[in-house]
Amino acid sequence: MEFKDILAISGYPGLYRFVAQAKNGIIVESFDTGKRMHAGAHLKVSSMDDIAVFMHEGEARLIEIFRKISELENGGEAPDPKSEKDALFAYFEKVLPEFDRSRVYQSDIKKILQWYNILLKHNLLNLEEPEKEEQKKEAAEKDKAQPRTSQPAGSAAKKSTPKKTSSQGQKIASAGGGQKRMSVSTKNK
């Protein structure tokens, strides 16, 4: 599962997996309960790939923070998100020393630690280095960019269907498997 398919929904606990597009929103599945629900267009849904933490200069992507937590914890669980405020800030300062304390709140740190533990529990932490991810993407793009050699160079990809005329002189055009009769005059104008 890709990091962009893991979602956080404002006002709802835990993380969700994108299942399908619905008429007025999306269908998601909770990692905790396994239940599916409709997340309407009125809800704020954020992809893990889009979330970042404010730093004094710039932002740190969530995957980078998860990578640092994993290094600090040697691949184990993060501390309890229900710890006291001072303990949470002290821990997060070890993880990301340059984070902006005036714009990152205790609730933000709690969510990040909860999300890390959920992803770790479900073996969804893909902490590959960005260079490796980019190399995989480049290789996939090269495969797509290479022309297919199964068709001869001179053959046309689009096949035209011959026009047929009915016994009454009307043209019949084939449209996607079914046939439609078109009232077209065969007289010269």
Low-pLDDT regions: 171-186
Major β-sheet strand ordering: 4-3-2-1-5
Largest beta sheet, briefly? 5 strands, antiparallel
Let me know the number of strands: 10
Q: Helix and strand string, N-terminal first?
A: EEEEEEEHHHHEEE
**CATH level 1 class label of the domain at 51-131:** Mainly Alpha
Distance between the termini: 62 Å
Going by CATH, the architecture of the domain at 51-131 would be Orthogonal Bundle
Structural class: alpha+beta
- The percentage helix is 25-40%
Structure description:
The strands form 3 sheets. The chain has a 5-stranded antiparallel sheet, with no helix packed on it. Among the domains are: 1-50, SH3 type barrels (Roll), CATH 2.30.30; 51-131, Orthogonal Bundle (Arc Repressor Mutant, subunit A), CATH 1.10.10. With 189 residues, the chain is of the alpha+beta class. The chain has helices at 62-73, 85-95, 106-121, 130-145, and strands spanning 6-9, 16-22, 25-30, 36-40, 45-47, 52-54, 59-61, 164-165, 171-175, 178-181. The protein starts with 5 loop residues before the first strand and ends in an 8-residue tail after the last strand. Residues 171-186 have low confidence and may be disordered. β9 (171-175) and β10 (178-181) form a beta hairpin.
